[in-house]
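Let us work through a complete example step by step.
Step 1: write down the sequence.
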Amino acid sequence: QGRLVDSGGGLVQPGGSLRLSCAASGFAFSTSSLKWFRQAPGKEREWVATLISNGDTYYADSVSGRFTISGDNAKNTAYLQMNSLKPEDTAVYYCRRDLGDIWGQGTQVTVSS
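Step 2: predict the structure and record it as tokens.
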């Protein structure tokens, strides 16, 4: 079945950067599209970004131009580079593999001064 492990979250000031990681085990993450989602307190989980197996990427309007999704086949890990962070980016971030609907456990990102 395989699993995903999210990491890299933390507390950062507005305007700062973080890089989230999504480490895959039990399968090659590049064999399926992979997405990042986030869920803020009291809100529904929302889609953030997608990495297709051919390398194409897609972003929610709210993060386009600030976030970058990528993957490293050698490390079997996907990343979400987040720049120019805003307080409204505060949420728990999850990666998800479409094939098999496999989710990471989530990592907390807090943007606050």
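Step 3: interpret the result. The chain has no helices and eleven strands.
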